[in-house]
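Archive transcription. Copying these from loose printouts into the bound notebook so they stop getting lost. Printout 1 of 2:
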Amino acid sequence: MRYVKVIILAILAVLLVSVALANSAPVTLRLVPEAMAGFLGLTWTVTLPMFVVILAAVGVGLLIGFLLEFARESKHRAAARDERRERQALERRLASRGPRSDGGGDDILALLEDGSVPKRKAS
């Protein structure tokens, strides 16, 4: 399995390098269109290679997706946390009761509680 992971990462690296080499021309990014830049007074521009823009867009998209998925699953994590706390409280409560000392009771419950079969009293 480790070799499969290394092979997949190597293929991904080769693909990313080929995309970078094929898209190395500089691209100018503007905050607002040129027609509105004079009107608003915002003339922020940056010139980057195209592959940086592509990889940054993919990274931002992944980040947004991860954040949305994290928010969507928060109710499931909260429910699991509540159930785990309830289970631990019930286990503590059951452990504090200790083994049954009355010698009677249900054989099935005795098996479930401590794995032993209670001895029957002779009549």
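Printout 2 of 2:
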Amino acid sequence: MGAKVKIRVTPEGQRLQRILKELKELEVRVGFQHGKTVEPDGTDICDIAAWNELGTEHTPARPFLRKSVDDNKNRIKAFLEYQMQQMIHGVSAEQALKEIGIFQKDLIQEKITEGSFIPNAVSTIIQKGSSKPLVDTGRMRQSVNYVVKKKESGDG
């Protein structure tokens, strides 16, 4: 007969198990939440962001969301590794996800402001008084946000 083995999980191991459970249940969504911000004419900022990101029949794509990730891969990797260390040292998964949301929000806003994109058409420059793509009133940039929520919640 085999000997009975008793496994004892250390307090650190218990904390790690709690963090992993939290991470399994939560997610952070960064970008634009449909229905949260609208232009004075009723146009949803989420739609405006999508039109700018992907382009339309009349405007070129200015992929500020994709470039905020593609142009910052090393910064993102280092930040995620730092947040992992923070969780190991006691920061909750929810707090780490909030920090990730703030970090990525900042990268998106930075890309909107400083990104190199196809210039505005002359007619657009005349209409808005600026040659800077993606920036008119600043409302889209200000509307970038994040939410931490339970996975598979179904709402946007």
